[in-house]
Amino acid sequence: MIFLITNIFLVPFVINIGMSTNYCYALSASPNPTNFRYIGETTNLKLRLYRHIYTAKTSKKRWPVVNWITKHLTQGEHILITPICICERDTYEIDLIAKGRLLGWNLLNIQDGSNTSGGMKNKNHSSDAKEKMSMSRKGKQKSAMHRNNISTALIGRTFSDEHLSNLSKSAKTKPTVSCEHCGMTTTKSNYTKWHGIKCKNRQE
Ligand SMILES: [Zn+2]
Fold this sequence. Notes:
about 200 residues, alpha+beta, GIY-YIG endonuclease, 2 domains, three-stranded antiparallel β-sheet, two-stranded antiparallel ribbon, 8 helices, 5 strands, about 15% strand, disordered N terminus, binds zinc ion
């Protein structure tokens, strides 16, 4: 009876009971099935493909592979999953990504093998990348709702004594500015926020 359930989540699960074959797979798109664009590892090819497509349709993260899948789906094409080899877990995928790159496969994998903790963990952005991120954010206004959310989250926040003493120590090492209206000497960020043209002692 359970085999009659056609929910795509359940069918691969049922088929997979008692099996733990681990595959390295490659993704390609229907117009060019041998142009492999992504290498991954799974014990369930059908479910993995379904999840790739589900992620592309629902995720807000725009990873290269997500963009690539979305592009082909919107063109009415299919994404194909091809098992390349049966392998031990977490071993061959890294090898295969490296070999694929050597063979000139134009792979969309961000990392050289999954199951490593993702993103920028233990890595630093280059100063070039930092500059680009900084430029892209310059002059952007946060929406009223965004500002309100930040404000609500910060109301009632308390700092530990240690945190306060660290803030104080760090403020003492920063260059200071004197306010032309009240004469107070303070850090540049405090000056911008509370003094200068915003100083309460300022005469109109
Ligand atoms: Zn002032």
